[in-house]
Amino acid sequence: MNQPALAPILQARQITARVAQVAKEIDRHYDGESFVLLSVLKGAVVFTADLMRELRNPFELEFARSRSYGDATRARTEPELVVPDPERISDRHVLVVDDILDTGNTYLALRQWLMDHEALSVRGCFLLDKPARRQAEVKPDFFGFQVPDVFVVGYGLDHAERYRNLPYIAQLPAEEAA
Ligand code: IMP
Ligand code: MG
Q1: Distance (Å, whole) CA 127 – CA 98
Q2: Cα–Cα separations (whole angstroms), residue 120 to 11, 109, 113, 143
Q3: Confidence band of 177 (pLDDT split at 50, 70, 90)
Q4: What is the pLDDT of residue 2?
Q5: Tens digits of per-residue pLDDT, 91-100?
Q6: Contact 113, 84 (CB under 8 A)
Q7: Average pLDDT score over residue span 22-42
Q8: Between the N and C ends of the chain, which has fewer C-beta atoms within 10 Å?
Q9: Which pTM does this prediction carry?
Q10: Any residues with Cβ below 6 Å from ligand 1, and which?
Q11: d(CA 97, CA 75)
C-alpha cells in the first residue's frame, strides 16, 4: 500500500530557502578554513545533500551513524554510535550535521567522542530544533527551524523507516505514533 499524503508543517520551498541561509551562516563561521562535515545517518541524508550543495567553504564529508529509536517515537536506549576513523577528525574542525536536536543525547555522545579523539572544534547544525524535550546540556550552533513537541517525519526523518522520502516536514498522524 502506498503511504498516505500528510499535511506539511514545513513546505519544501520554505526548507530550501532556509537551508541556503544556514549554509551562508556556516560559510561565514568557517571563513575559508576547511572543516569536516560529519553527517549523522540515516536521518540527515536529505538535509546533508541539500546543505552541502549550498556551501562554498571547503569541507570533507564523513558519516557517523546513530540509532536510538527502533520503531518507537520515544528514544528507548542510549544512542549506539558508529563513528568514522579517528584519523579523519583529529586536529580538524568538525561540524556535526543531523536532522533534529531532540533530547540532545545523540549529539552529546558524538561530541564527547569527537573531543576525546582530539577534534580541534565541534559545532552542531540541525535542520530542526525541538527544545521542549532536551535532556542533555547542548544547543545547536546552527539550525533551520524550531518545532513543537510533536513527532515529525519527512525530508529524511522517519517513523519505523517510513516517510523519509516526503519532500516536506509533516507531523506523524496520532494513530501511527507508538
Ligand atoms: P536526540 O538524541 O533525542 O537528540 O535525537 C536524535 C535522533 O532522534 C534524531 O537524529 C532523529 O533521528 C530522531 N528523532 C528525534 N525526534 C524525532 C522526530 O520528531 N521525528 C523523527 N525522528 C526523530
Ligand atoms: Mg537521526
Answers
A1: 7
A2: 36, 17, 12, 21
A3: confident
A4: 80
A5: 999 999 999 9
A6: no
A7: 98
A8: N
A9: 0.95
A10: 43, 68-69, 75, 79, 98-107, 151-153, 157
A11: 19
Residue 15's nearest CA partner among 40, 56, 49 is 49
- Sign (positive or negative) of CA dihedral 25, 59, 114, 47: positive
- The three cell numbers of residue 104 are 540532545
Query: What residues are paired with 81 via a beta bridge?
Result: 66
For residue 32, give the nearest of 77, 93, 116 by alpha carbon.
93
Contact 147, 130 (CB under 8 A): yes
* Nearest CA residue ID for atom 19, ligand 1: 151
pLDDT above 90 covers what percent of the chain? 84
Structural domains of the chain, ranges and CATH numbers in brackets: 8-177 (3.40.50.2020)
Hey, is 40 helix, strand or coil? strand
Angle between helices 45-54 and 12-30 (to 10 degrees): 60
- Which residue CA neighbors atom 22 of ligand 1 most closely? 157
Q: Which of 98, 99, 102, 158 is catalytic?
A: 102
